[in-house]
Structure formats: C-alpha cells, structure tokens
C-alpha cells in the first residue's frame, strides 16, 4: 500500500497549492447566498423569457465530484446590477488538471477573460483567478494586490467563485458580487 501511494505521488509530480484567498474575496464568498438571492430576485423580476430559460438550465442539477478537464463553451449570465438579467454570447474556455484536487481554468476568448485555479477548499471547489479586459496583463491571483477590484477597462482584477460540475457536460462558476454594478455572475460551461 505504501509503495502504491509513493508511486502515485511520484507520478503526480509536485503540486502547487492554490493561493490563499484575500480578505475581500473571503467576505464575498461569505456573502454568496446574499448575492445569489439578490441576483435571482432581480433576474426574475425583469429578465426576458429566453434568458430566464437559460438561467434555469444553468442552475439545474446538483453538484457532483469535479472532473472538469477539457474544452468548454462558456457564457456569462449576469444577475442584478445595471440590468436585471443579461446573457452574453458563448466563448471558449479550457480546464486542465494540475493536481489530484486542482485544475487550471482559462476563458480563452471574448473581451472579458479570466484565468486561475479551481481547488477543493473545505469541501467546496473554489476558483481564484484574475479577470482582465482589453490589453491588460493576465496576472495570477496571488500576484495581484489584495482587494483589487475592477475599476476601469484595460485593468486586471481578482476574481473568486464557487465551481460546481453538474454532469460530464455541464458546470458553472458562480461569482458573488463580481464587479461594481453587478450582483451575481454565472459562467455557464457546456460541452
């Protein structure tokens, strides 16, 4: 048994631990239910029928064990804020395994991109990433200053989300209070 464990660890190679969450991001995760509730109330009060149908699809299904490696189609569904509900066009995303309970995520296309790490943390899969627009540098979460939120186009900002995979071809990243003027974002992943 010990040999098997040693062999597995040797084959897996070194695993970089997910960066620690900054206090502002911990606060946003602590307020996850508040953000989801406010966002859903806004979406249901003024969202278009087709957008509400996609929102329902994105939120359907229970979270199962994550096995998300591969290429995905991903689209942002923004609940609350400037508009009650906004659905954006699909873009390309990729998730690659980096360790037994850790994956590298990247939104590859679109004007708003993101990259970071999904890691199991206290029983939940938490995304720590850097969002960026325009020609902004695509920094890593750990390298960005604490509390760095999106303030202008062309800048890089910290992102935090809860990841849930509801089936082999469906998953969601849920961002509480993702940017100023938004209450709750869902990045809906399908393949």
Features:
191 residues; alpha+beta; eight-stranded antiparallel β-barrel; 4 helices; 9 strands; 39% strand; disordered N terminus; signal; DUF4893; DUF4893 domain-containing protein
Largest sheet: 8 strands, antiparallel, barrel
Number of strands: 9
Distance between the termini: 37 Å
Low-confidence stretches: 1-15
Helix fraction bin: 10-25%
Keywords: Signal
Organism: Palleronia sediminis
Protein name: DUF4893 domain-containing protein
InterPro entries: DUF4893
Describe this structure in words.
Pfam families: DUF4893. InterPro entries: DUF4893 (IPR032609). Keywords: Signal. Mean pLDDT is 87; it is low at 1-15. An eight-stranded antiparallel beta barrel has the order 1-3-4-5-6-7-8-9. It is globular, with a radius of gyration of 17 Å. It contains four helices and nine strands; from the N terminus they run ααααβββββββββ. The chain has one domain (17-190). The protein is an alpha+beta fold. 24% of the residues lie in helices and 39% in strands. Strand 7 and strand 8 (170-176) form a beta hairpin.
Secondary-structure map with pairings?
Layout: H1 2-12, H2 23-30, H3 32-46, H4 49-59, E1 70-79, E2 85-87, E3 91-99, E4 102-107, E5 112-121, E6 124-133, E7 156-167, E8 170-176, E9 184-190
